[in-house]
Structure formats: C-alpha cells, structure tokens
Amino acid sequence: MRPILTLRHYSHDLIAHSHDHAQLVFGLSGALDFEVEGRGSQVVQQSFVVVPAGAHHGCGSPHGSRCLVLDVPSDDWVGQCLGDHADASRRLLDDSVRLPLDAGQSQLVSWLAGSPVDDPVIAQQGAVLLLASLNGVRRETLGGRRLPYAALNAHIDQNAAYPLQVADLARVAGLSSARLHARFIAECGQTPMAYIRSRRLHQAVALLRESDLPIGEIAHQVGYSSQSAFAAAVLREFGATPGKLRHQR
C-alpha cells in the first residue's frame, strides 16, 4: 500500500505521468513548475495544486523544490474517513486547479511536514484533517466563472507558430488585458505570457516524442524562428535538450 503523505524533493528532471488516484501537492520551499492536462501553474509556499485521478501531469523544478504530497487512497477512503466532509472533498479532487492556503492551513501543512509522516496513524489522521480543512477553499478563493481555458488553449494551439500577445487571449476571454493578467495570476499562479510559452513548449515536446519532424520544423511550429532559442527554452522548461527529449519516447 502506498504512503498517504510523503515529503518529496523535485529537481530539474521532468516527471510526466498519470495515476488512478487523486493527489494534492503542497509547496514547502522553492518553486515547482506544474502542468495538469495542458494547464500550467507553479506550486510555491502557501499554495497547492490538485491532480484529479487519471489526469496526465508533468512537473519539474529548475532550482529545486520541496513539497508535501497527499496521495488519496481511493474514493471509498474519502467516504469512510471524511464523513460529512466527503462530498466537498470529492468536488475539490475532481478539478485540476492551483489554490492558495490561508494562514491556518499553511501552519497545518508545515506541522505535518515536520512530523513523522511515515507513521501510518499520523499520515492517516493528518491527511483527513488536511482535506477537511480545505473544504470550501475553491469557492471562497476563486468564486464565479473560471477563465475559458478550452477556448484559450485552442487559440494558442491554432496560432502556435505566430506571435501571440496578452491582448489576443483577452479578446478570446472577453476581458481587458489587465483583468486577464490578474485572473491568470489568481487562478494559475503565472502570467498569460508564461502560460502561452509553457503550452507551446509542451506542444513541442509532444511533437518531439510522437513525430519524426526535424527539430527546426518543430521550433517553427511553436513560434521560434531560431532553433538555438527553441533549444534554450526547452532546456529551461524541462531541464533537457530537444534531442534528449526526442530519445525519451
């Protein structure tokens, strides 16, 4: 049986996979670049990201990051252990999202990180308490309608080879550029331009691994006129060169 709570150190090595259980990743130190189903964010101290069961996700930290990870055992476990909180916890675990922690939640995460989480009793009770404390955080922190990520992603993908500005995405979302920028910071923890860059580069990695197109052609398809600039951007984002990623098919 896998541990419920673990302390993990992340490096520039890219991790990309999926699993059949939901997961919460809480930032303790450093910054962890995270992408879940094409939506980019960054996990830092006093924030966490939700990875729903079955969601493909990738992460890496160029300068190192330390996180507390809660691997939810199963939906049955949620029902048995969370009681009246179970439905709210299930709603939280169903959507890939990055959220901030308030002062009390941050203290709880720090306390658990300093506790012997390899003790099954502490891990079980700590995970239950942590999940219960997060009930309602999604509605309270984000509220209202979220950004139209499907439309934004489609626009980025369709125009990946061309210059894109914040104003382009603002028109798709029906917001001013300033308002879009603020919403991206609140919901994703990154700027719209960082989101565009990350999505383009993830699209490039998919092409590197799934096609035989020359690297220069892939660079052009995701908006880089220079193959060297593309290679540098990929190295910064994933900690590996395009050639190395191609060989990791």
From TrEMBL:
HTH araC/xylS-type domain span: 150-248
Name the domain of life.
Bacteria
List the InterPro entries: AraC_XylS_family_regulators (IPR050204), Homeodomain-like_sf (IPR009057), HTH_AraC (IPR018060), HTH_AraC-typ_CS (IPR018062), RmlC-like_jellyroll (IPR014710), RmlC_Cupin_sf (IPR011051), Tscrpt_reg_AraC-type_HTH (IPR020449)
What molecular function terms (GO) are annotated for this protein? DNA-binding transcription factor activity; sequence-specific DNA binding
| GO CC term (a single one) | cytoplasm
Please state where this protein is localized: Cytoplasm
Which PANTHER family does this chain map to? HTH-TYPE TRANSCRIPTIONAL ACTIVATOR RHAS-RELATED, TRANSCRIPTIONAL ACTIVATOR FEAR
For this entry, the protein name equals AraC family transcriptional regulator
Question: What is the scientific name of the source organism?
Answer: Pseudomonas zanjanensis
Q: What is the lineage of its organism?
A: Bacteria, Pseudomonadati, Pseudomonadota, Gammaproteobacteria, Pseudomonadales
